[in-house]
Amino acid sequence: MSQQQDIVLSGIRSTGSLHLGNYFGAMRNFVRLQETHTCYFFIADYHSLTTHPAPEDLHNNVRRILAEYIASGIDPEKCTLYVQSDVPETCDLYLLLNMIAYVGELERTTTFKDKIRKQPGNINAGLLTYPVLMASDILIHRAHKVPVGKDQEQHLELARVYARRFNNTYNCEIFPEPEAFNFGANLVKVPGLDGTGKMGKSEGNGIYLTDAPEVIRKKVMKAVTDTGPTEPNQELAEPIQNLFTILDLVSKPETAAFFRDQYARCSIRYGDLKKQLAEDLIAYLAPIREKFEQIINDKEYLGKVAAAGREKARASAAKTIAEVRRAIGINRL
Ligand code: TRP
Which of 50, 99, 168, 177 could crosslink 160 through cysteines, CB 3.0-4.6 Å? Predict the structure, then answer.
């Protein structure tokens, strides 16, 4: 199958703003993929309802993520960019897939078990069937490739199980089995500024794509370091390696090489490294932030983008649902 025919799909939950980790781990690759593949990108607002956000917050988050997607280079002309709740066919499929999804396999999902531990007071059925909704997102457009992080691989495995099970149960070949899209060397894990681990929405250790320059400077200056190298050519401790990882992403190669050399000679001044890193981050993110500010309050433009995305997504989804209903035997009397 040619790349153009290969359907790529990915969604992002509408919680919080996008950070550097989202950008280098996902967005930047989406921007490349839209040039070569048929892509569907959407904002998973239904998925964010498991924690009952306030209506105002939900609405603002969806608008914000849409603007951030566009500001990061996702081009609504080159792909189908839409909001999950705008495509009711996804819910039709969700209901139908729930009939072939076993409670046992859902209960065994790692993310579900995590939620039981973390929020014992709110184990709603939506959490249990979260993977069924995600499978519906994917299968409604009969996607082949799904770029997702490691934490979503088990969900993707279930989407494959449901595709296969549906095809077998109804003796059809409606659904391809979606695979994880592997970015290979382009998959960059962005570390947080707190010394260990990756940048995450909930960890509070991130640089956001739309952070103002002063905010970026403050965050970078506060980043965890150590007391400095004591021997020449010493191995970099994790917090320092993390700063270099970010430097490699946003600075000129000479800049990173300069500071690596200083580290090797034990003459590095972390303050200088941080100042440079902050300025390079600010410059790197400036075009994204400018574009974001230009569109975030343009309700007419964002409304138009969402409406066009809805139309394209529903056209594709309606075809799938028609075939699914026919296969199951749901026909008009
Ligand atoms: N569950 C994904 C996450 O938390 C978001 C998501 C929802 C998704 N539906 C999807 C990702 C379909 C890929 C495909 O990151």
Answer: 177
Active-site residue set = 115, 198, 201
Domain 3-188+298-328 = CATH 3.40.50.150: no
Are β-strands 179-180 and 145-146 bridged in parallel, bridged antiparallel, or unpaired?
Answer: parallel
Give the residue, by CA position, lying nearest to ligand 1 atom 11: 11
By alpha-carbon position, which residue is closest to atom 13 of ligand 1? 10
pLDDT band for 186, please (50, 70, 90 cuts).
Answer: low
Quick: pLDDT tens for 67-116: 999 999 999 999 999 999 999 999 999 999 999 999 999 999 999 999 99
Q: For helices 55-71 and 299-328, give the axis angle rounded to 10 degrees.
A: 100
Q: What is the pLDDT of residues 135-179, one digit of tens each?
A: 999 999 999 999 988 889 999 999 999 999 999 999 999 999 999
For residue 88, give both structure tokens.
Answer: 């009711």
Give just the sign of the alpha carbon dihedral 168, 318, 33, 45.
Answer: negative
CATH fit for domain 213-293, picks 1.10.240.10, 1.10.150.20, 3.40.50.150, 3.90.1100.10: 1.10.240.10
The answer to whether the CB of 10 is under 6 A from ligand 1 is yes
Question: How many angstroms is it from 134 CA to the middle of ligand 1?
Answer: 6
Q: Would you list the domain boundaries of the chain? A: 3-188+298-328, 213-293
From the CA of 12, how far away is ligand 1's center (Å)? 6
Cα-to-centroid distance, 55 and ligand 1 (Å): 21
